[in-house]
Amino acid sequence: MKQKAVGDMALIAFYFLLRVGEYTTTSTTTKKLTQAFRLQDVTLWDNNTILDHSLPLEALLIRCTAATLRISNQKNGKRNQAIHHEATPCDTCPAKALIRRIKHITSHTSNPNTIISTYFCSATHPGKLMRATDINSALKAAVIRLDMKKHGFQVAQISSHSLRAGGAMALHINKIPAHTIRKMGRWSSDTFLDYIHEQIAVFSAGLSTAMGNRILFHNIGFQGIPAPVLDNADT
C-alpha cells in the first residue's frame, strides 16, 4: 500500500506542482505555515457536477472529468486558492491518482481532515503519514531502475523537489506561457524561472535556425554626423 501511495502522490505532486510540505510530514516539531492537503480539499468533477467521494471506485474513474485541490494555507501566505486539472486517458492521469488516494483513505476513515498522502497497510492499521524521505527514496530508486544516468541524471541531483521543478519544466517545454506556469505553481514572483534548465536540449531547439535567418533591417536609431558649418572666414 505504501508503494502505491508514494506512486500516486508523485504523480499528483508533478501535475499540481506541489511543494513537498503540501502533502507530506516531517519529523521536526517546528510549526510550519504550509497546510498539507486533506480529503476535504479535493473536489472531483463530472463536467460541472461535483462527484461524491463515496461513489464506487470504478464509477469515479469513469465519470471524473477533472479534479481540484483547494489550498487552505501555503508558504507564501495566500489562502483559498485552487489548482485544477482535467482528467486524461493515460495511465499517469492526475485525477485518477487523486481518486485512488481518496478511495484508499475513505475505506479506512471518514475523517475529512485526513492528509491525502496517508496510507493504511491493513484494516486495523491506524494509518501513517508519508514523509518527504519516502518520496526522495522512491525517486532515487526510479532513477537507478530506469538507468537515467545515460540521459544525464545523477541520483544525487534528484529529490522530492524534482517533482515540482520537473512539472514546471514540462509545462515550459510544451510552450505553456510563463504566466500560466507561475499561476499553476502559486509562485508570487518569477523565481520559478530557476527551474527552467537550459541544459535540456529541447530548450534551445530551433534557436540556431532562427538566429541564422537573414533579416533586412534599417537602424532607425542611427544619427549621421552633421556636415561642418562654414563661416564667412572660410569662404
Give the key terms.
9% strand, four-stranded antiparallel sheet, alpha+beta, hpI Integrase, Chain A, 235 residues
Write structural notes for this entry.
It is a single chain. A hairpin with a 2-residue loop joins strand 1 and strand 2. The longest helix has 14 residues. The chain is 31% helix and 9% strand. It is α+β, with helices and mostly antiparallel strands. It has a 4-stranded antiparallel β-sheet, with helices on one face. The chain has one domain: Orthogonal Bundle (hpI Integrase, Chain A), CATH 1.10.443. The protein has 7 helices and 4 strands, in the order H-E-E-H-E-E-H-H-H-H-H.
How would you concisely characterize the structure shown here?
The protein is of the alpha+beta class and 235 residues long. It is 31% helix and 9% strand.
In percent, how helical is the residue content?
25-40%
CATH class: Mainly Alpha
Number of domains: 1
Strand composition percent: 5-15%
The CATH topology name reads hpI Integrase, Chain A
> Strands of the biggest beta sheet: in what spatial order?
2-1-3-4
Which overall shape is indicated by the principal axes computed on the Cα atoms?
Answer: elongated
Low-confidence stretches: none
Number of strands: 4
What Rg do the Cα atoms give? 25 Å
Overall mean pLDDT stands at 85
Number of contiguous helices: 7
**C-alpha termini separation:** 101 Å
- SSE string: HEEHEEHHHHH
